Amino acid sequence: MSPTQIQETSWQAEYPLPLWADGAPEALGAGQLHEPQLTVHLPAEELANGCAVIVNPGGGYRILASDHEGLQVARWLNGRGIAAFVLRYRVGPDYATSVSLLDGQRAVRLVRSRAASFNIDANRIGMLGFSAGGHLALAVATNGDDGDAQAPDPIDRCSSRINFSIPVYAVSNGARRGRKADEYTPTDQWVNAHTPPCFIVHTHEDAIVPASQATLFYEALLRAGIAAELHIFNDGEHGVGLAVGDPDVGTWPQLLWRWLRRRGFLTAQSRITLQGALTCAGAPLGMAWLTLIPKNSQNPPARLLLHGRQGGDFVIPEAQGPMPGAHELQIHWISQQSHYDASGKYSLEQSLICTREVLIEADQRLAIHLQPDDFSPLDIDSD
Fold first, then answer.
1. CA pair distance 175, 178, nearest whole angstrom
2. In whole angstroms, what is the distance from residue 61 CA to residue 218 CA?
3. pTM of the model
4. Which domains does the chain have, with CATH numbers?
5. Under DSSP, is residue 205 helix (H, G, I), strand (E, B) or coil?
6. Where does the pLDDT of residue 382 fall: very low under 50, low under 70, confident under 90, or very high at 90 and above?
7. Which among 115, 158, 289, 293 could disulfide-bond with 328, CB atoms 3.0 to 4.6 Å apart, if both were Cys?
8. pLDDT (mean) for 166-171
């Protein structure tokens, strides 16, 4: 099937939306290069999960790589129930990156102001950007505000804070990169407690934007205590987009989806605190992983390492807890010892697994009472 023959099964609407109805501020002329806009890409209604992502194509703040870093990304997001909005932001040499930032912030306000009509959750809006577009995503992430309650334009009354950021082979600090310090502002220096969680992607082979730009921003997030996930693939040149056709680097979109699910961005449900007890033949296991896999694929899994010295009782706090509903319970028994010592002795021939179907409900204690025969050897070679 050629790119022009893609079946319209995962999206329901695509149309342009100007950021400002009456002309953009600081515009130097008329026409596409001076009129920032979003292209709206809504998923099929039966797939929609309420999450939204603004997509910033890259291009060195001079051009926009709108196919493989714009439309194709939007289609991928739509196929997973996520509303996508591809941003055409103003670029140089006519416009400074401060104007690009203005466009990025306005895009967030505009999407949030129309959350109901787009069938999205105003508190689950993220921004994904490639290269320069990734720098813009980081600039928006570190320059959010709550909106101006007195603004005559109701859109400007909305917050420009994004709920998550996805920089892909992005510049984070032009001065540290050694190029275009005046254009690529030092976003790592602006990280603070209000910076949203980030999923960061880069490649070791990138000869245009070194992977140290990714680690620089990640370290700033780490210092600030902000949730983050960083993937640096060895292979892959700059500008791979979704890296279609690459069996390794091309896994990053699936890793992103798993991160969005784990962080709870794919559902409107709330996590709960789960208390319970796990015993085998009336006694606690030495060491075991308790994993809850939700039947609803949009909901996050929950996992906890249990130690026998805790007596079998456990608590999964709300921040990492499950959401109510049907789950597959997996118990991975990894040691008969509740703690290791310096002897180096073995206690299990191999790890064991037991699975059960459970219904998780709020304010319900989960009691799991097993027998040794309930476990079977785990095939560690299976994918």
1. 5
2. 23
3. 0.94
4. 3-262 (3.40.50.1820), 274-377 (2.60.40)
5. coil
6. low
7. 293
8. 98
